[in-house]
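BUG: 3D viewer hangs when loading the predicted structure for this chain

Environment: internal workstation, default settings.
Expected: structure renders.
Actual: progress bar stalls at 90%.

Input used:
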Amino acid sequence: MSLLEVDALEAGYDDALVLRGVSLTADAHEIVAVIGPNGAGKSTLFGLIGGQLRADAGTVGYDGAPIDRLPPHHRAKAGIAVVFQGARVFAGMTVLENVMVGAHASTRAGFVSAVTRLGRHRAEEREIARSATDCLARTGLLDWADRPAEALPLGQQRVVQVARALCGRPRLLLLDEPASGLRAAERARLASLLSDLKAEGLTMLLVEHDVAFVTRLADRITVLDLGQVIAEGTPAEIRADEKVVAAYLGTEVPA
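Structure tokens produced before the viewer hung:
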């Protein structure tokens, strides 16, 4: 049984379908990528899986149970963490404090404790701090723990987002265009981090526009075009698929 099962999703706006019967799966300890040209429906699919949007038809299943009606915070408590597109860090807070906020998915006090330090939650806050410190060590940011998060370069802010998601102890990590705006060296470091997390047993679904990034990283790739799945398979199979090449303006899909 797959950890994530998306079956025949349909969604639209103003009577126009954006997704048309999209299905995919992600197995445990696997990196699955969704790619496609602009307007393919990638962001809508991401929102449906994360719970920010509601489908018109179809189902989203997680760990064998339907989660279509679960709001995002309940999906987080079930073990689904989300890293949204763009660097979203809390200004005025350190890197460590930013990561501590991610613990709200798996603790009673979580966000309140990390931000306000209420006395009755001090013991839990210490545990959250230990967990956040461990996440910083896992992602290579421990030396930056006490620095203002907004002062970090974009690439490191993106890693702060990943560390914050890890602090919720997820089983499934959803990433929306994590390589967007990053320089080549930053993309390479991010890819290395995601590969390490996969080796630790984390399952990931990443929605990306950077084809070269995902073909070097993903175990399987689903390709969307105009709201439909036009291909799925290994990176080698996707690079050789004529429909995928045509969707990318008739040029060879990057290796």
